[in-house]
Design a protein that fits this description.
Chain lengths: 142, 256
């Protein structure tokens, strides 16, 4: 349950932004190998923010794909291949051009708070619940 | 709506504000770990963080290392110590103290990994501090410890032949962050029909070129090479610190 520790850190980061309004949503970036279960993180966050002004704030999680680098040709192939030539993903990282082993870039471990969405200043008087509802309606319309 | 993109508008008069934060979730831990690393360098203690699943043989191998490292290099007068993490009990610490080394036990009471502030608390109250090697045995877990930097110089992963050769593929995140891996219980490899070549290929798949040791806590297989490597790593670490200090002291920017 390390997601609970992460949720607590996300809450601390969000509350340290010195903004007057309550966040509507928080954008999270998770690397492919970050070992974070998205549902568990969302549930943990809901637990952390309950009975706080952020109880209606939700997480928008972006899962990043692995990025490989060939140190020989300095290319980042989107489809590394296996030694046998089969197109596989993360587990057979061979450069398709050089046949050299690929190095995974650090972004696979990324865990970051990318952005925080607030209601407009005019909406500061709007209760967080209402602002959240408005946004949800808009998203559904899209 | 594509949930991966931040929404730009709610309406003509209710467009939300997007504040770009771009902050690591574990920034507080990372910052503390960086401070800890500097503290360890200042105290001249070389720190390794051992991660593995429960039952891989961490404690057995650590017990041997604590006992055999100073014995193998008597002229170096090496002092070793350990901090060990478990959810409950101090059984591992009691066991490791048989080596004669000072050992601290952290009981996390449910937390699945160690964090930098736990190590800081232990190290700040650690006595004596004249230690050359500090070994941190993390909570047995191949997922959660991945993301928490403890201020170590090296991260050591362990997996036993009884766990199967595909462990690195199942837990690529953790093995990708390791600097070296110990294949433990190698004395059981034949009985387990362990496919050594596949295991090594799988490790290279998630961390190309990683240093691998095949060891047995029971027979001592691989101990000599492991201890030689540890000592060499510490010497490299000391040289890199000395080089950094030297570069800083002679930097024209510093001089002006």
């Amino acid at each position: 349950m390390h997601e609970l520790s992460l949720a607590q850190e996300i809450f601390k980061i969000a509350t340290s932004q010195n903004q007057e309004s309550v966040p509507i949503a928080i954008g999270i970036r998770l690397g492919a190998w970050s070992c974070v279960h998205e549902d568990s993180l969302r549930n943990s966050f809901q637990w952390v923010v309950q009975n706080t002004p952020m109880q209606n704030t939700h997480l928008v999680i972006e899962r990043l794909q692995e990025i490989w680098l060939c140190e020989t040709c300095q290319q980042s192939p989107e489809s590394p291949k296996s030694p046998a030539g089969n197109q596989l993903s993360a587990q057979s990282p061979i450069c398709p051009w050089c046949d050299e082993a690929l190095r995974i870039l650090d972004s696979v471990q990324e865990m970051s708070v990318d952005w925080i969405e607030y209601p407009q200043s005019d909406d500061c008087d709007v209760a967080p619940n209402e602002a959240h509802d408005n946004k949800n309606e808009h998203h559904e319309d899209e | 709506m594509n949930e991966t993109s931040p929404p730009m508008k709610i309406g003509e008069t209710q467009a939300p504000r997007i504040l770009q934060v771009r902050t690591k979730i574990l920034k507080a831990n990372d910052t503390l770990a960086r401070t800890l690393r500097q503290k360890f360098a200042s105290d001249n203690v070389f720190v390794t963080n051992w991660v593995s699943s429960p039952g891989s043989g961490k404690t057995t191998w650590l017990e041997r290392t604590l006992k055999e490292l100073p014995a193998k290099f008597p002229t170096e007068n090496l002092r070793v110590a350990a901090i060990v993490g478990d959810l409950e009990t101090d059984r591992d610490a009691q066991r490791l103290r048989r080596s004669g080394a000072p050992v601290r036990q952290i009981m996390t009471h449910g937390l699945c990994h160690l964090e930098a502030d736990m190590i800081e608390r232990e190290w700040d109250s650690f006595s004596p501090k004249n230690v050359d090697f500090l070994f941190i045995e993390n909570v047995g877990n191949l997922v959660c410890p991945t993301s928490w930097d403890l201020g170590e110089s090296l991260r050591i992963g362990l997996f036993s032949v009884t766990e199967g050769e595909d462990k690195p593929l199942k837990y690529p995140g953790l093995f990708n962050t390791c600097d070296a891996v110990l294949l433990t219980k190698i004395d059981l490899a034949q009985a387990c029909e362990f496919q050594r070549d596949a295991a090594i290929a799988n490790l290279y798949a998630v961390r190309p070129g990683i240093k691998i040791f095949e060891v047995s806590g029971k027979t001592g297989h691989g101990l000599e090479a492991w201890l030689d490597w540890l000592l060499a790593q510490r010497e490299n670490w000391q040289a890199s610190i000395a080089s950094t200090i030297s570069a800083a002291s002679t930097s024209p920017r510093e001089a002006t």
